[in-house]
Design goal:
The chain is of the alpha+beta class and 795 residues long. Strand 9 (238-250) and strand 10 form a beta hairpin. The radius of gyration is 58 Å and the shape is rod-shaped.
Length: 795
């Protein structure tokens, strides 16, 4: 059998070879077609020379070179300088390890000078020393990646600055994912993966249930939530946080929860601080009686805050809201007589050309109950870019109390001025009255009873006494006259007052009396209490003088507690209550508060000085008492005087006994710069038996005493004198002879009174104009005390 192939075998082999060749050519054509038509960049490169052998059209299109330009240079010339070493290192390392595929990225320079990022997949053939590589342009992807990195970095930085972290919860696995800032807020290391329960346990125990319920509703019903909850970090730090949840829904089912987690502690603290500041501001505005308002010019609309309504003693609800027109504002809150003025102010604010214009205005206001008060309005003007006034705003302050205090201050200043006037004129007036009273008194001693001359002298004496009483009233009103306080029975004083009043008041006016005979003692100046009673009775007489009527005088003891006299300074205890009522025409309510003002009077010209009730008020206040007035038009008026009673009856005699005129033979140095007064006092003292040396100059008197200091038993000197005042003279005399008693005579002096006289070495103070009995009493008293002191020293 022959091994030579048959013709058929050869023919079959040829056909097989032709088929293989055809398939090879077809494959090459397909590869060439793929190579040329591929959108990816394809190249064949020589490994040893690092040059391109063949590149496809996509390669030249991306880089912008012609194929010849790419083939004539090593491919490293086209790689970014920063990427050459890395590219070479990767390729050589992979070739050494026999890798069949090499992946890397680098930047290639385009013909226009720009660089593009390429992602390479290289298939090396070590035997043929070539490699086939495919590159894809990833420049846009790289840019997007860089932008995403920047965006994430910015988001992370923003989260850190705002203390906002992100979180996710997988609805299926309940796996929790946190961002870096969330980890930082929790103070938890980033490698720790918390469970849902652990995440909820970070919240304050009192807020956990509320948060867990919100999470469950979000999972079950896709409900969003936005909660402010308290939080405790891993290190025990307490925070306020805000957590927001937005469910992600796929095909109607919640697949995950996404949200943010923000530290709002600083915000909460700022809000609390703001609330405190607002509360403090509101409290300050309430204390200061300040109310805020704004006025919208275009819409003629006022808007107020709650404190504004408190000023007017009402609420926004009671007046129908927080806004109203200017007309309604004026009708409700502005006094009718001030509405025109307020309207002009509003127009002035609107029409002013000055930006930032501000002004302060006072006017009367109406409280919700109709009472009248005073308000201070401070406002500012706001203009737009064209200079048109669009708004005014400001504050109102209730200054009613301030106005009342100012009125009281003015009253006090008025009384102080009158008091200063009284002190200024008292000395001169007393110097005029003293000779009149004294000479009249001596005439009464010298003239026979029943003679016309004696009657005339009596009238002069009475007129002088009335003048002296007027001075005392003025000084009592100004609280500058001294008081001779002693245990006093008011009923004895009233007996004298009513006796005197009956002789003055016509008989067609009835005087009724209801006087408690055993009324207890008060500590008082009897002369001043006499003034109080006489002035009130005289006032009642004037009320019924024209048409007749009845005056009723009552005196009784009363036990008062705090509820009996609200609004007064009286303390609970026993009081002597003196009431004087009349059936006259009465007074309107607005006059009752003015009747104690100095110089205020409703009497016709010549019927009074206007000082009577002011004096009464001053005396009663000075005796720690009080006075109340009740009056109705057509029903008369009642004055109630409350004087505190003494707790224990004293052993000393009361001020209702008569004093016996006493005489003496001692030697007296008399000093007064008014010759007429000096002569009068000298004659009066000499009639009492004393030996008197008179001087009308204080320096001459001092020289007379210095020459013969033992020639006198008493010094009696005026207070106000030129060269040397009475107290200064007393000091000089005391330096010569310390045991000499000294009496100061004065009409008024702020420098000396009964309280400080002893400290100045003064034995007694005699108030001018003094009648002979007063002078005799004071001289005898001082001499007897000095004599007793000497006797005690001798013994």
């Amino acid at each position: 059998m022959s091994n030579k192939p048959s013709y058929e075998d050869l023919e079959k082999r040829v056909r097989e070879l032709e088929r293989v060749e055809w398939e090879r050519r077809k494959t090459e054509e397909e590869l060439a077609q793929i190579f040329s038509m591929s959108l990816d960049m394809i190249c064949i490169a020589d490994i040893d020379t690092a040059t391109f052998i063949k590149v496809n059209p996509a390669f030249t299109e991306v880089l912008g070179y012609a194929e010849e330009e790419l083939l004539e240079k090593p491919f490293f010339d086209f790689i970014h300088p920063d990427d050459i070493d890395a590219t070479r290192s990767v390729v050589e390392q992979k070739l050494q390890t026999g890798a069949k595929v090499i992946n890397f990225e680098n930047r290639y320079r385009c013909k226009d000078g720009s660089f593009r990022w390429l992602s390479w997949v290289s298939h090396p053939n070590p035997k043929k020393r070539i490699t086939i590589a495919i590159a894809r342009d990833i420049t846009e992807w790289k840019r997007n990646e860089e932008a995403l990195k920047k965006s994430k970095a910015l988001l992370d930085a923003t989260g850190r600055m705002a203390r906002v972290g992100g979180w996710e919860l997988d609805a299926e696995t309940l796996e929790v994912t946190w961002t870096a800032e969330t980890y930082r807020i929790h103070e938890v290391p980033p490698d720790r993966k918390p469970s849902l329960q652990e995440a909820i346990d970070f919240f304050h125990p009192e807020d956990r249930e509320r948060l867990a319920q919100a999470v469950q509703r979000a999972l079950d019903h896709a409900e969003q939530y936005d909660l402010e909850v308290r939080f405790i970090t891993a290190r025990g730090k307490h925070l306020w946080t805000r957590t927001i949840c937005r469910p992600e829904i796929v095909r109607g089912k919640t697949v995950r929860l996404k949200g943010t987690f923000q530290d709002i502690t600083d915000l909460k603290q700022a809000q609390e601080k703001q609330k405190k500041l607002e509360a403090q501001l509101s409290e300050a505005m309430e204390i200061a009686h300040l109310g805020h308002w704004e006025f919208d010019v275009e819409n003629d609309l006022f808007t107020f805050n709650d404190q504004f309504y408190k000023i007017f003693r009402t609420t926004a609800r009671q007046v129908g809201g927080y806004s109203m027109s200017s007309a309604e504002y004026a009708r409700r809150f502005v006094h009718p007589e001030d509405r025109d003025m307020v309207g002009k102010e509003i127009r002035k604010a609107i029409e002013t050309p000055d930006a930032g214009f501000s002004r302060q205005v006072e006017h009367r206001m109406l409280y919700a109950d109709g009472k009248v008060g005073y308000i201070n309005v401070r406002y500012f003007v706001v203009k737009d870019d064209t200079g048109k006034t669009v708004k005014t705003y400001g504050v109102n302050q209730d200054i009613t109390r301030q106005k009342l205090l100012e009125s009281k201050l003015q009253q006090a200043q008025k009384m102080e001025s009158i008091g200063s006037l009284a002190g200024g004129i008292a000395h001169d007036f007393n110097n005029i009255l003293f000779p009149i009273i004294g000479m009249a008194e001596m005439l009464l001693d010298d003239l026979p009873e029943g003679s016309l001359e004696r009657e005339n002298a009596e009238e002069i004496f009475k007129a002088g006494k009335r003048g002296g009483e007027l001075v005392k009233q003025i000084l009592a009103f100004s609280r500058q006259s001294g008081r001779q306080m002693a245990p006093t029975r008011v009923q004895h004083i009233l007996k004298e007052v009513l006796k005197l009043a009956r002789s003055i008041i016509p008989s067609y006016i009835e005087i009724d009396r209801e006087i408690q005979p055993d009324c207890g003692l008060i500590m008082a100046d009897p002369t001043q209490i006499h003034q109080v009673a006489m002035n009130i009775v005289t006032n009642a007489y004037h009320a019924v003088e024209a048409n007749g009527g009845t005056i009723t005088v009552r005196l009784k003891e009363a036990e008062l507690d705090g509820s009996d006299l609200p609004g007064t300074h009286l303390k609970p205890g026993r009081y002597a209550v003196l009431s004087v009522s009349d059936t006259g025409h009465g007074m309107p309510a607005e006059l009752i508060g003015k009747i104690f003002d100095p110089y205020f009077t409703t009497k016709e010209q010549g019927k009074g000085t206007g000082l009577g009730l002011a004096v009464v008020y001053g005396i009663v206040q000075g005796h720690k008492g009080n006075i109340k007035v009740y009056s109705e038009i057509g029903k008369g008026t009642t004055f109630n005087v409350y004087l505190p009673m003494m707790e224990k009856p004293p052993d000393t005699p009361t001020a209702d006994g008569a004093e016996v005129l006493r005489t003496g033979t001692e030697r007296i140095l008399l000093v007064d710069d008014e010759p007429s007064i000096a002569k009068l006092e000298k004659q009066s003292l000499e009639r009492l038996g004393y030996q008197v040396t008179m001087r009308v100059n204080s320096l001459e008197a001092l020289e007379a005493f210095r020459t013969k200091p033992d020639s006198f038993d008493l010094i009696m000197t005026d207070m106000t004198m030129p060269n040397m005042t009475g107290d200064q003279l007393a000091g000089e005399i005391k330096s010569i002879r310390s045991d000499i008693p000294i009496i100061i005579c004065t009409g008024f002096s702020e420098r000396i009174n009964d309280e400080n006289a002893g400290n100045l070495g003064i034995s007694g103070v005699l108030m001018k104009p003094a009648i002979k009995s007063e002078m005799a009493k004071m001289v005898r008293k001082v001499l007897d005390e000095a004599s007793g002191q000497k006797k005690r020293e001798f013994d």
